[in-house]
Amino acid sequence: MTRIFIISFALLISSRANSQNKQDYYWPFGKDQIQGDEFGASEIDFTMKPLTPSARTAGLEFDQNNASICDAEGNLLFYSNGCAVANRLHEMMPNGDSINSGIFFDTSWRGDCAGGYPGQQNITILPDPSNNDGYYILTVPTSVDTIINKSVINKMKYSYVDMRLDNGYGDVIEKNVIFHEGSLLSSYLTSISHANGKDWWIVNPVNPLGYIVYLLDETDISYSSIEADHVWDDFYSSSSGDARFSPDGSKYALFNRWDDVLVYDFDRNTGELSNERMIPWSEQMPGIFTSCEWSPNSRFLYLMQFDSLFQLDTWAEPLEEGLAFIAENNGIPDPRITHFQKSALGPDCRIYIRTLSSSYSFHVIHKPDEQGTACDFVQQAIRLPHVTAVGSFPNFPRFRVDEEEKCDPSI
Q: How far apart are CA 386 and CA 42, in angstroms?
């Protein structure tokens, strides 16, 4: 009887793991042409065991825009570098060129998509609530104000992919459709599923204050509201940090050196941000970027800057009492110093941290649900097949908010 129970329990656990939404299981990055003996493109496929980054010899090159989408079983559907869309064969989709085209791309970026599009958190891909084979690619492009001759962030756009076309490999049937006009902060585009489990909330900070909230439902992308009243630094706030929803969908955090650490409650029914809590961040140094990411249990928020990693226990009262130092960069060149630049929670319950560019390795927080140094942070934990030229991870929405398991530690 005991043996039968154990086998049944194991099958139940396996079944639950297999049923997990795996739409964020493919991570591409880097250049697709090996330059000399070092630089090249890599990828992580979380369906592969053991998990090992592998070389990628075809497909798009990346600057900082990075988004991908799989089906629910973890099979790659397509990905984008912000100026093109590639299918699962790593070939450009029909009509998949000229994403984010315009004066900035044609002049400042020389009209060249070979290196991808800039802006680390300015792109994401959302499933269409009205079509199981449809996907919205949301982008926050850089524009040029021709009157003052200055680059600006003042639009949100979408392009639409229909996976029923081109023999199931997908086709871009709408492109660069503007759904928001007005001054925005760059690199904070964030999205999460609605409480109904079908629609999506889209959030981005807006200048001079607050956050714009949009709703993607069965009909369209529609304006919802402007939430909160935080006033942004007009010069430094853009592109200096990032923002994340907690895996359980109850909180939203934004972190950069100029606006400090901001933590809000979030209502997935209404799209409302409330109860702003702030921790002042003393080191305001231009040119130094920050990143944040949540633990799978949504309790701990990890904060990183160039040389230091911290953990914030968001259950602490007052909030600043929950801030703990975890580690300082060990200074090992790889081939450059592998500082802390960008972080992402993987579907395997680990947090990955990478440098801006030119590194052979990723750092890993192996047990982010554990308090303090028990989180098991290991520097240079994963060796990459090539040096990665630019530091980016795909910018995914929170997919598994309503699932009991927010990740799968068995990967």
A: 7
How confident is the prediction for the chain on average, in pLDDT? 90
Q: Is the pLDDT of residue 164 over 70?
A: yes
Cα→Cα distances 113→96, 187, 372, Å: 12, 19, 42
**Which of 59-63, 165-169, 383-387 is most confident?**
165-169
Q: Give 95's contacts (C-beta < 8 A, 6+ positions apart).
A: 171, 172, 173, 175
Relative to beta strand 242-245, strand 251-256 is: antiparallel
Task: Read off the tokens for 142.
Answer: 């850089």
d(CA 127, CA 147): 37
Q: CA–CA separation, 379 vs 363, rounded Å? A: 4
Give the Å distances, CA to CA, from 49 to 44, 46, 272, 366, 407. 11, 8, 40, 17, 15
Alpha-carbon gap, residue 217 to 386, rounded angstroms? 41
Quick check: 205 and 185 in contact, CB under 8 A? yes
In terms of phi and psi (left: phi > 0; alpha: psi -120 to 50; beta: otherwise), the region of 98 is left
**Token digits of residue 287:** 């040119």
Q: Which two tokens stand for residue 281?
A: 């961040």
Handedness of CA 199, 204, 206, 210 (dihedral sign): positive
**Closest listed residue to residue 397, CA positions, set 49, 21, 17, 15:** 21
Q: Is 11 helix (H, G, I), strand (E, B) or coil?
A: helix
pTM of the model: 0.93
